[in-house]
Design brief:
CATH architecture of the largest domain: 3-Layer(aba) Sandwich
Number of strands: 16
Number of domains: 4
CATH topology of the largest domain: Rossmann fold
Helix content: 40-55%
Bound molecules: iron/sulfur cluster, Broken Fe4S4 cluster
CATH class of the largest domain: Alpha Beta
Number of helices: 25
Largest sheet: 6 strands, parallel
Strand content: 5-15%
Radius of gyration: 24 Å
């Protein structure tokens, strides 16, 4: 372990994070930063996308400087190798979020069949609206019957019997035309992922352009399919988020209560844990064990899900997950899937924390596996909460350090909530953009990555954007960073430019609106489509952009690609592994403009990225005939 070599202030801008890194060192607990340091310097072939282990004739590497080493054993050149690797990243990202969506369909089906006693239809109106979108006749049918019918058709969206997934009906017509011309209208959600893996097998698709178009279709199947289904059904089953106050940072953990951390992505388990934490029997049991209550806190995107709907406080984002356990104050860590570091079981064992895995798809070293299904969720959730309570007595007070006081944040800005805040339609938002009070909007999304000082990219970028009258909507771990930076309270309007400030004060909203978890980037797509339809234009014409300043995950690559393919120019902090192919780099950074009317920008410096975004937005304003400060 090289903990001594690390200076906490160089690793994270968060003061709770710094305190916990120091404590981890004292407690001799290895963290992500120690392992990152041990892994550095990374392989330059892999960083460039020029290594391949797809088949047993390899593994192969391409050294662009070596005249003898310019092809893999099969003959793949740099373009093919980089494209194949990239397609596989996108396929993995799409599979992850879309499989999450499928689990929601599964729960909806079981609810419809009366086999999921802990779950119910929380939003019958949204269920009916969705059912109508899917062509289901609702008249005279019960909610449960509609749920069964809708689940059946959504399952079909995952399969291969259709020419196009049904949610493409939400795509503005100009955009759909572009997709049709390019042949990238997504068919079955699973079909695209499966085809991506097929095409990247040795000896199938060896044209880098054709491979990249498949990557785009695969990403769109997720963004306008699997992820969108995930968001909409989570709303139907657990409630449409509405604005509410909550709290953020490690200070949300409590000295005198049983602390349970919820981690992963899917609300199917965490919603049941929430219900169990309200159970009078279990609350009484907590008292018996000397605790004054049961305190749930989230991390990562499961945290975002329960924060958006229930106001459960947020302990931290991706790089805080180990550090939350280092507080020594956590009785149970309950996980579902995605972004859960395999190290967590080991960290838990350094304290009294019990870690539980709950999905048949995701098991972890050092975790007890308690499988939760729609049928047994209520009973198993109660078991998990009870076990956490019984573990309270094992907390070692001398090893506990809960740094800081929690910060206030406002959350819950679903599209429905935003429209309500605007008085019933998006017209006031569009008018504010037209009048130039709000210059445009940016979706800031994505993760943390130990290659970047934690949250520094999010802070610098978002502060500069709002100061320049750009409304920020955020999701995922980016959303936790801005909340910790104090930007999710109405008072943060003071940091905004005069136009945005005026609108925020008028509506009583922060300049940075939390729209949910990573799958909820689909909310941003729907909002962009609604604005484009309102203006009778394409998404690519709007003064909007997306950014992932600290991304790490394959899912983020998929999100970035479906954003670009939907017409939203996307700014990335870390460089994706494509630099080994000049053709692909040129295509990503410029050529895509002729294909999707949007492209990627890679800029590691968040201040420079903000300047580029501002200019991009002003250029779009000029093209729409709105007043503009574009620098040409
Ligand atoms: Fe090497 Fe080609 Fe096999 Fe990849 S697919 S490992 S480049 S032989
Ligand atoms: S959890 S994908 S680290 S945002 Fe969605 Fe955070 Fe990125 Fe995972």
């Amino acid at each position: 372990m090289k903990a001594e070599a690390l200076v906490a202030k160089d690793l994270t801008i968060t003061t709770d994070g710094q305190a916990m890194i120091d404590k981890a060192r004292k407690d001799n607990v290895e963290t992500v930063w120690d392992r990152y340091q041990a892994q550095s310097k990374h392989c330059s072939f892999c960083e460039a996308g020029l290594s391949c282990r797809i088949c047993a004739m390899g593994p192969c590497r391409i050294n662009p400087k070596d005249p003898e080493g310019k092809r893999g054993v099969c003959g793949a050149d740099a373009d093919i190798m980089v494209a194949r690797n990239f397609v596989r990243m996108v396929a993995a990202g799409a599979a992850s979020h879309s499989d999450h969506g499928r689990d929601l369909v599964e729960v909806l089906k079981r609810v419809g069949e009366g086999k999921a006693s802990g779950y119910s239809i929380k939003e019958p109106e949204k269920l009916r609206t969705l059912a109508k979108e899917y062509g289901i006749e609702c008249e005279g049918k019960s909610d449960l019957e509609i749920a069964r019918n809708l689940a059946y058709l959504m399952e079909e969206d995952f399969g291969t019997r259709l020419d196009a997934i049904r949610m493409v009906n939400r795509v503005p017509s100009a955009r759909l035309e572009i997709w049709k011309k390019l042949g990238v209208v997504p068919r079955g959600i699973d079909r695209e992922t499966s085809e991506s893996l097929h095409r990247t097998h040795m000896g199938v698709d060896n044209d880098w352009v054709s491979l990249l178009l498949q990557a785009a279709r695969n990403a769109l199947a997720d963004g306008w399919g699997g992820s969108m289904i995930g968001t909409d059904l989570s709303d139907v089953l657990f409630g449409i988020p509405i604005p509410k106050e909550s709290a953020v940072n490690l200070g949300v953990l409590k000295h005198d209560e049983v602390n349970i951390i919820l981690h992963g992505h899917n609300p199917v388990v965490s919603e049941m844990i929430y219900n169990a934490s309200q159970d009078p029997r279990l609350l009484a049991l907590a008292k018996e064990y000397g605790a004054s209550g049961i305190n749930l806190a989230g991390v990562c995107c499961t945290g975002n899900e329960v924060l958006m709907r229930k106001g459960i406080p947020m302990a931290g984002n991706h790089l805080m997950t180990e550090l939350a356990l280092v507080t020594g104050a956590v009785e149970a860590l309950i996980v579902d899937y995605q972004c859960i570091m395999p190290s967590l079981g080991k960290v838990a064992q350094c304290y009294h924390t019990k870690m539980f895995s709950t999905s048949s798809k995701a098991k972890f070293p050092g975790a007890e596996h308690v499988e939760i299904t729609p049928e047994n969720a209520k009973e198993k959730a109660e078991y998990l909460v009870e076990t956490a309570i019984r573990n309270f007595k094992n907390r070692i007070k001398e090893r506990v350090l809960i740094p800081e006081k929690p910060l206030k944040q406002f959350t819950g800005f679903s599209i429905e909530a935003i429209i309500k805040a605007l008085g019933g339609s998006i017209t006031p938002l569009v008018d504010a953009i037209k009048a130039g009070k709000i210059r445009g909007a940016v979706g800031v999304v994505g993760c943390n990555n130990p290659k970047i000082k934690q949250d520094s990219g999010h802070r610098a970028l978002v502060r500069k954007l709002i100061a320049n009258d750009i409304l920020v909507v955020d999701t995922g771990c980016a959303a936790v960073a801005t909340a910790k930076d104090g930007l999710k309270v109405p008072e943060a309007a003071q940091l905004a430019g005069s136009g945005l400030k005026e609108i925020c004060i008028l509506l009583g909203i922060p300049p940075v609106l939390h729209m949910g978890s990573c799958v909820d980037n689909s909310r941003i797509m729907v909002l962009a489509a609604a604005i484009a339809n309102h203006l009778g234009t394409d998404i690519s014409d709007l003064p909007i952009a997306a950014s992932a300043p600290e991304w790490y995950s394959e899912k983020a690559v998929t999100i970035a690609l479906y954003a670009v393919a939907s017409g939203i120019t996307t700014f990335l902090g870390p460089t994706p592994p494509i630099t080994g192919s000049k053709n692909i780099v040129d295509m990503a950074l410029g050529g895509l403009e002729n294909v999707f009317k949007a492209h990627f920008v890679v800029e590691a410096d968040p201040n420079k990225a903000a300047d580029l975004i501002i200019n991009h937005i002003e250029t779009k304003r000029a093209k729409l005939g709105l007043d503009s400060k574009a620098k040409v």
